Amino acid sequence: MTAEFGLAALWFAAALALLQLVAGALALNPRGASLAAVVRPAAIVQGALALIAFGALISVFAATDLSVRLVAANSHSAKPLLYKIAGAWGNHEGSMLLWVTVMGLAGAFVAMVERRLPERTMLATLAGQAFVSLGFYAFLLFASNPFERLSPVPPEGQGLNPLLQDPGLAFHPPTLYLGYVGLSIAFSFAIGALVTREVGPAFARAMRPWVLGAWIFLTLGITAGSYWAYYELGWGGWWFWDPVENASLMPWLAATALLHSAGVLAARNALRAWTVMLGVVAFSMSMVGTFLVRSGILTSVHAFAVDPRRGTFILALLAIYIGGALTLFAIRAATVTEGERFAVTSREGALVFNNVMLTGALGIVLMGTLYPLVTEAFDEKVSVGPPYFNPMTAFFVLPMLVVLAVGPLLRWRRDNLARVRGMLLVPGLLALAGLGAAAVLVPGKVLPMIGLALAPALAVASLLPLRGRRLRQVKLPLWGMVVAHFGIAVALFGMASDSAFTTERLVAVRVGETTPVGPWQIRLAAIEPVAGPNWTALEATLQASYNGAAPALMHPQAREFWAPPQNTAESALHTRWNGQLYTVLGEQAEDGRWQLRLWWKPFVPLIWLGGMLIALGGLLALTGRVASDVRRLVARDKIAYRREKQGR
Amino acid sequence: MSAVKAKHQRLVLVLIALAALIAAGLLAAWALRNQASYFYLPADIAAKPPETGRAIRLGGMVQNGSIKTAPDGVTIHFIVGDGTNRVPVTFKGIVPDLFKEGSGVVAEGRMEAGGTFVADNLLAKHDEKYVPREMKDMTVAQARETVKETR
Asked: A43: which of A111, A506, A557, A614 fits an S-S bond (Cβ 3.0–4.6 Å)?
């Protein structure tokens, strides 16, 4: 019953999206102006209905209703409740339902609170949002119905991929989707502004909080996903340039560029057409990512659908939305008048450099991700990995980071490098000293060397915009920028340190033997069987001693799940302030020795700490902007109220 | 410079962005040709041996009775075949759970001078839903012969 209820809610939501689109489009015409009143309520109810459908799916998963095909294929009665619920989005249909739910909620949220956009642009934006939603509703209802019944009802479900049964991963997809799909708002804003030709500072200020919100979730989602891959896959790496990772990185790069260009548009009324285009590109990258991941043309843990019809469907949606938006852009871009001018050496100039470099990095990642598909068409199978991605992205990102140190110190419009030279003396010297030290410590490793030299300099430079200010009076958005830029320096140091200083050891030892890795001595104390709710495991007890200190106990496991039958290696981590010890238990050799894989990774947690700081920076900026918006609205209402009273 | 730019700033910006994009595209195309790792079957290696040291992926069936563990307990040697040709492989590390004799594997690594493939990473079939892309076709094309041969 719940399943039918959810399906009905989904159909009604789709119908309301259609209403929202038609009413919004007609209301743009003076003769249809009376329809304008329908658009906002339609958006709000549509969002609520999508949420109800999603709630229904969660409830059938929580109850393990095996008469629903999706539940039977992806769940199991013996699974812990958290993973039953997470199973609702751990599959193709459920994740697409999550997609339209986030789109619907984002539209509803905009309809409820956005008051700064001109009314006509608002109508066009909501119509655009409904137009995009409709395609995905159609995809769900006609090609990926999550509520389909199964007959006869199987006695037991097939279970969820054990790799996905992890608390971190339960929340990773919703977080990522809030970011990924939240960017649809930027897309719809761009469409709305193109339709009504109202591109200007007001548009940028209205769009910025929405982009920021999506970007914060995207940043958190990528950071959490990277940490998950790091500890769950047991390979000791934190980024694999897997197509799925790239699919989340590409929208992030575009959204980061968009945030910065929207800043220029809001403050200086420049980069007008460019900002609109980035709004289109950011969400287009989300859709391209979905196509790559969900169409089944790439295989990975994330590729659920192997039905070619679905791939074709998503490809058609892509062609319609991205093609349509770019066509609209091509027609209207020429009518977007040129913005204010600026000198090369200026805040705008630095931000343009940031945008070009981010776009370049985006292009590199996109090409590397699509290349295997292109060659496959010519019957040549290739894979593209770190040897391509690492140097190529660094080529764009490292120069950008150098400019990042300088840009925030420059004035808008026109500035002189001589003015800021004095301030940059300390970070400059720090970078040189760092380069010297890195050349001695890690000779020959070019990228880690540059990263290690650049990170401390960047950390200092990122704080410089605070110089000479009273810290209490510094506004939140400025704090946000400083924290986010500082976070980049922190993450960069972690990445460089991981590549430069990691020591790895692979050994076979008997119980009772001790083996060294880096400054650690690790003793295999015992191997014992343990059992969990839906798995059994062999668990090692390791006594890890740092430079002779009292040993810490660690328990890596080799787990065996029985539904579905699959083995996973559960790594065990021990974190110190200066790094992380990473241990994996392997197989038992014929002579009774156990394989252990050990890594000592100095400062590696800084990667994720940096990611969280970047997100925190976004949050501070968002809080500051929203607070000042609210203050302005309250003040406006007060004035209006007073006028009304006086008039009476 | 600023006088020229002030007049045509938008044009200049567009041109710079275009130039950067084209440069990025060319650079990426060049790097992709050099850095992409190609997929080989043992027969491909026999027919057209790749440069030694170049990163490639080797796919095939792990031959029955071929897995040998070295005295250090962590290095293994095995033979990957496709029904017609065979390539000896060396791998140091923890093997994936479904890596076993008579089943498919994709090894990432490089050919060494002696004709041995040194693998950095092994990709075996993970579960029903996750099969390395190259292996899907391979099992169709080669499985029958392999089964015949290994029986």
From this structure: A111
- β-pairing, A520-531 with B86-92? unpaired
Q: Which of A161, A363, A387 sits opposite B28 (nearest CB)?
A: A363
Residues B23 and B83 in one domain: no
Report the pLDDT value the prediction gives residue A161, as an integer from 0 to 100: 72
Q: Give the Cα-Cα-Cα angle A489, A576, A615 (nearest 5 degrees).
A: 35
Contact B20 A360 (CB under 8 A): yes
Q: Where are the domains of chain A?
A: 1-165, 172-421, 504-602
Q: What is the pLDDT of residue A296?
A: 60
The domain in which residue B82 lies consists of 38-150
Q: Is A288 helix (H, G, I), strand (E, B) or coil?
A: helix
Coil, helix or strand at residue A452: helix
User: A586 and B94: CB-CB below 8 Å?
Assistant: yes
Give the A:B interface size as CB pairs under 8 Å.
127
Both B19 and B92 in one domain: the answer is: no
Residues in chain B: 151
> Taking CB atoms and an 8 Å cutoff, what residues of chain A touch B20?
356, 359-360
> A383: which chain B residues are within 8 Å (Cβ-Cβ)?
36-37, 39, 57, 108
Q: Which helix (H) or strand (E) holds A595?
A: strand A594-602
Kindly tell me the burial class for residue A577, based on how many C-beta atoms sit within 10 Å of its own C-beta (0-12, 13-18, 19 or more): exposed
Instruction: Return the minimum-mean-pLDDT range out of A279-288, B2-11, B64-73.
Output: B2-11
Q: CA geometry: angle at A281 spanning A94 and A612, to 5°? A: 65
Chain B positions touching A161 (Cβ under 8 A) are 127, 129-130
Are B10 and A338 an interchain contact pair (Cβ–Cβ within 8 Å)?
yes
**DSSP state, A464?**
G
The number of domains in chain B is 2
Q: What is the pLDDT of residue A43?
A: 96
Inter-chain residue contact A367 with B29, CB threshold 8 Å: yes
Q: How far apart are CA A451 and CA A453, in angstroms?
A: 5
> What is the per-residue pLDDT for A410?
92
For A635, other C-beta atoms within 10 Å of its C-beta total: 10
CATH number at residue B126: 2.40.50.140
Please check whether residues B127 and B63 belong to one and the same domain: yes
**Rounded-to-integer distance, Cα A431 and Cα A595, Å:** 42
ipTM of this predicted complex? Answer: 0.79
Q: What is the chain B residue with the closest CA to A337?
A: B10
Interface test with A, best of B1, B82, B121, B126 (most A CBs within 10 A): B126
Residues of chain A with pLDDT under 50: 299-305
Residue with structure tokens 């959810």? A6
- Contact between chains at B130 and A597 (C-beta distance less than 8 A): no
Q: How far apart are CA A227 and CA A203, in angstroms?
A: 36
Q: How far does Cα A80 stand from its chain's mean position?
A: 27
